[in-house]
Each structure stands twice: as C-alpha cells, then as structure tokens.
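Q: Here's a chain of 456 amino acids. Please give me its 3D structure as tokens.
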Amino acid sequence: MLSNQGRNGGKRKSLHGHWSSRMAFILAVTGSAVGLGNIWKFPYIAGQNGGGAFVLVYLLCVVLIGMPVMMSEILIGRRGRRNPIATMELLGKEEGSSGHWRWVGLIGVLAGILILSYYSVIAGWVLVYIVKSAQGAFVGADSDTVSAIFAGFTGNWLSVTFSHTVFMALTVFVVARGVERGLEQAVRFMVPALLVLMLTLLAYSINSGHFMEGVDFMFTPAWDKLGWGSVLAALGQAFFTLSIGMGAIMAYGAYLPEDTSIMGASGAVVVADTCIAILAGLVIFPLVFANGLDPAEGAGLVFHTLPLAFGKMAGGVIFSTLFFILLAFAAWTSALGLVEPAVAWLVEQFGRTRSQAAVIVGSLIWLAGMGSVLSFNVLADVSFLAGTIFDNVDYLTSNIMLPLGGLLITIFAGWVMCRNSTADELGGAGTTYKMWRVLARFLAPIGILIVLFNAI
C-alpha cells in the first residue's frame, strides 16, 4: 500500500503510507481546515464587515493568497515525503540552499502542538455541551441560567481537565492507527457526517421564520462598512481558515499519491472550506434573529447565544445536541492534522511506533493544555503580556507563528526551490503553474506580511 513513486529519480516513499485516493486527501485536508472558527467566526465577521462585500473580498484573498500558500505547502510535503522538519532540511540541501530550513518545519510542528493545547480545552467544552443539550439543560433557560451553566463548568478545573483529557484521548486513538486505518477512516466518516449535520440544521434554520433575515445579514453588500480594517480581517481569515503554516498540510501532502493534481485538490479544499463556513452562517443567524438575540457576540455565540436560542425553540433538545456534535466533529478532524506532524517526526527521527509517538505527543499536548484549563479558574487572575496563559498561547500562535511559518514556506517554494522541482510537482510549466509562481513569489508573501505586521 505504500507509495513508491518518489521524486528526483530516487523515487522517495512515505514511511507512513499514503491516502488511498484524491478524495481521501481532500476530505483529510478539508477536515483539518474546517474547525470551530469556521462555525462562528466567519459568519460573524462577514456580517459585521459589509456582508456580501466582505464575502467577495474574502474569496479574492482565499484564491490569491490562501490557495498559493496551500499549494506551496502540499508540493513541499509531497516532494520531501517526510515530516515537516525533515522535509524542509532535506529539500533545503537538495535545492542548493541550507539544511537550516528545518527550523521552518519546527516552527510549524511547535505551532500545531501549542494550538492544540488550548484548542483541545475548547473542544472539551463542546463535548460537555453535547451532554448538557441531550439532558435538556437549556430548555426554557434564560440568559442568566445559560451564563451560570457555562461559568459553573469552566470554573471547575477538574471538570474542564476531564473533558480536555477525553478529547485528547479520542485524537490520540485515531492518529495512533496510522494514515489509512486511522486518519483516512476517520475523515471518510466525520467530514460527510459533518456536512449531513450541517444540512439538517440548515433545514431547521430555514423553518425558523427568519431565514432571509440571516441571509441579508451575511450577504447584503454594505460597501460603507467595508474599510481597510475589513480587508485586513478578510486577509487574516483567508489565511487562518485553511490550516496553513502549521505543518498539517505539509504532513498530509507527504502522503499524497503522485498522480493527484495539487492544483485540483487545493481548489476542492478551498471550495469545501468556504461553503461550510457560509452554511454555518445560514444555520446560526436565522436562529439568533428568531429569538431576538445579539448576532455579534463572537465566541459567546456558541456557548451562550445559541444554547439560549435552542432552549426557546421546538425541538431544541434534538437540534442543539446535533449542533454540538457537529462542532465536535469539526474540532476532532482539525485536531488530527495538528498532531500528525509531531507524530511523524517522532516515528522517523527516533524509530518510535505510531502508537508510542501518538501517546507521547498527546501527553505533551495534554500537559501544555493544563495552562489553558487553569486560565478559566484557578489562574484566571494571573495576567501578563497578552492576558492569561490561554490568551498568550493564542496570540503567539495565531499572530506570530502561523503567519511567519506560512511566509517562510511560501518563500521557500517560490524562491528557493528551482523551477524544475516546483513544475514537476504542479504538473508542468503551463499557465496554471505560471500563475502560482507569480502569486507565491510576490502577492502571497506581501499579503502575509500585511497580516503579520497588523497583528503585531
């Protein structure tokens, strides 16, 4: 089952196996890209930054900046066929540059570990809310009751630790099973299930009586609201929504069959990721408007506003449970991509089995996540630099490590790798290749630098 179709005449093969098909790869990368942020952040910032006008700018940013970076990361991964650290070192030497490019791979691996350390905590909250929804905890609840439920849970560090532990255990279980038996089987079930749940909730939302109000909020072009800040928001969202810059896409690219078009696969992922984000808005906002609630509550939309809305609606128990299951699937598929680069590195560098590597990496992430667990209770009053431990890890990864990693990856693909190498991976030197080369060498790095400097 291993791919023996490597590169550069030596025909490299991945040590971990490969995706059985193009569709498996697309599902895996889509699962990695679609996360909690897609479900609430994109609809919210679209509605607040010009609706349809923002969506148009966002799509342009995704195509002109996000997609070239994703293609760069995939082609590097497939050409190296190793974990991100080893791949960057190997190709750096092979392309006549330096093995020091391994530090770029290390930035991505560390970013994935740090992101999952706090992402797992939030995903644990989602697991708890599945149970609370199924028990009818939000039925007829007012705002104070919903707030008390959230505060009571997050304020208990033992409860948050337990949910954090359960989520990490689920993630480690899948990754330990390998590429085909673990990652592929999981995404083949969870990504389609996520879409089915989304469409089921969309039908429920359409019947809320306020569907067109939600559509107007997201899509009516309000050009007067579209300022420079909106463009920056679109740039940032386009970059972060695709999971680029954290090694996950590079690791997944290492398992991509030779005959799969990187351009076609990247395009499919971008379309799927964007459609799910838009569907999320069409699910959420009609429910919010139907209950006269505030659509601009950001992260609180998931754990406060929506439980309140579901609690007031017929069938709320069923559909709120389905909604949080949907969120759990989105979080789980993203977590798999965050763990994989570090696991692949341990397997290749130290000869560990996948099971051993998954447990070691999962345990380290779990331990690092305890800082975020305690940020909402025991250490809530401990503040430095950007805020709590949770706030600092979030700021470091989102505003510095991911843009920096994405920038350096794109520079490596566009400027360090020779034309023959990149053309070989992207299927020749035709118009599509020439467009990628211009975008990867010039426009994408400039866009990422704008995001990086604005965040700092």
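Q: Can you summarize the key feature?
A: The chain has a mean pLDDT of 90.
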